[in-house]
Write a structure and sequence with these properties.
heterodimer, A: about 100 residues, alpha+beta, two-stranded antiparallel ribbon, 3 helices, about 40% strand, B: about 160 residues, alpha/beta, Rossmann fold, six-stranded parallel sheet, about 45% helix, about 20% strand
Amino acid sequence: MGCIESLKYEIILRDASFTECREYIRSTCKEYVGVDPGFKIFDKHIIGVPPIFIGFDGDVIIFPFTKPCYGTFLMRVEDHDEAARIRQSAVQSKK
Amino acid sequence: MTSENKEKEKSAVLVLGCPQVPVQTGIALYLISALRKKGIKTTIAGNRAARTLVEVSDPERHYVGEVMDIDRYIGEIAEKKRDFDYHFIFIHNDAGVSYAATVQAITGKTVVALIYGEHFQEIAGTIGFPCEKIAAKAVHNPMPLKNKLDEALPWVVSNL
């Protein structure tokens, strides 16, 4: 997932479980969507234990990112176009 | 054998995790050998380090066939460009569980989870999706996992 690593990102959680990522997004994001594994984000297929939550704070996207050797990170990336695309293509679950 | 009677060659993919646990490469080559004896074509998917370890261990390619990047593998099964009869996922950490859950969700198939390492029971306990678990405490010595594989493989290959 080289293209995600080349983005300007912030790591919220390191070595997190998918339950921890889901709970963080559910408890802190006013807006989030649930997607299946394989859903494309930043042109890569997302890895994870379903349901995978992706949170939003305006144009900021909060999502889990898994690397084989490093486990799962919960990341924040600001991208207006990608946030709009995800909102359109995923089923929304607003609080 | 006529072409009508000839069955389609079965295929399997071995999805390797981070190669930090020493048994992974040896078990992968052993599993490829066992599957080939059953007439199953094998592909390896992994990150660069895992793939390179397998390729360096079999320089003449007596066992190793196609090798592909793990992200490309996920992309191709997600976009239905590739399909495999069997998905063997090597798991020794949470990331391995995530990849297995992803493959299961994308394909809808019962994947085979090879679970090993120091914390194999704890890792196995986190798996709540449908899969065949082959688990053993194997870190440096591959024999506990090899023995479990020998027991389970005939059943797995004939039933999945």
